[in-house]
Amino acid sequence: MTPLAPKLYQSVRSYTRRLRTMHDEFRMAHFMYSLPEDIRKDIGWPDFDGDRISRGR
């Protein structure tokens, strides 16, 4: 194995992990925003997502 192979493997693995995390966060947010507003308030889900603009409520 060349010295480049482990570094390349780690980079691809790290990138894949970040993509999976982003996908999981998107799915969770999509599910939470599909719930009625009163249920979201009861569990403490914010009305907007951190850096994004408010959802117009």
Rounded mean pLDDT score: 82
Secondary structure: number of strands: 0
Q: Classify the beta-strand content into a percent band.
A: under 5%
Helix content: 55-70%
* Low confidence ranges: 53-57
- Sheet of most strands: none
Please give the radius of gyration in angstroms: 18 Å
Query: What is the overall shape?
Result: rod-shaped
Termini separation comes to: 57 Å
Elements, N to C (H/E):
HH
**Sheet/helix structural class:** mainly alpha
- Number of separate helices: 2
Oligomer: single chain
List the helices and strands and how they pair.
Blueprint: H1 4-34, H2 37-43
What does this structure look like?
It is a single chain. With 57 residues, the chain is mostly helical. It is 67% helix and 0% strand. The protein has 2 helices and no strands. The protein has helices spanning 4-34, 37-43. It is rod-shaped. Residues 53-57 have low confidence and may be disordered.
